[in-house]
Amino acid sequence: MTYRNNGAVGALLDEYERAMRELIDVIHPLSPGTLQKVRDPHTSHADCRSIQTVLTHVVRAGLCYEIEIRRMRGEQLDYANRHQLETAEAYSEALLGVIRSAEQLFADYPDLKLEEHDRDKKIKVAWGQVYDVEQMMEHAIVHILRHRRQIERWLLADRD
């Protein structure tokens, strides 16, 4: 991994990429059958039934975080659709695409203010939380970590 040299933005992008690559390392050896296996048939959250649905959720969420920031800057964008993929390789490419998309966001808006104290200038997301750009990116990083942990736990349960 190459470290970026652009201060706080670089740190956020480095950690975002690190989290994504750690997730990719976990899913890389998985077969389509392992991805598709229902892990939690009783969950009310459709995005958390299988590794495949979790990964679909992680990719879409990553793109939606960027869209939220772009919308805050005045762009008129629709939210990303869910695209269920069949292989770990396809998910790996999609996850790396999320990183490239985040890099492009900061390239498009090099003056993007990370911290915002005025609540009226923050981003109100679909689930009701209010974030500034830095908080949104920090949430994006931890979101990947939480779901990587979820997948790791499911895979450990397969060994028992």
Automatic annotation (TrEMBL):
Sorted alphabetically, the keyword list is: Metal-binding
The molecular function GO annotations come to: metal ion binding
Question: Does the keyword Metal-binding feature in the UniProt annotation?
Answer: yes
**In this entry, which stretches build a coiled coil?**
none
What the entry lists under InterPro entries is as follows:
DinB, DinB/YfiT-like
Against SUPFAM superfamilies, the record matches this protein to:
DinB/YfiT-like putative metalloenzymes (SSF109854)
Note whether Nucleus occurs among the keywords: no
Query: Which positions are annotated as binding a divalent metal cation?
Result: 57, 143, 147
Any Pfam family the entry gives: DinB
Family statement drawn from the similarity comment of this UniProt entry: Belongs to the DinB family.
Would you tell me the protein name for this molecule? Answer: DinB family protein
Its source organism is Flavilitoribacter nigricans (strain ATCC 23147 / DSM 23189 / NBRC 102662 / NCIMB 1420 / SS-2) (Lewinella nigricans)
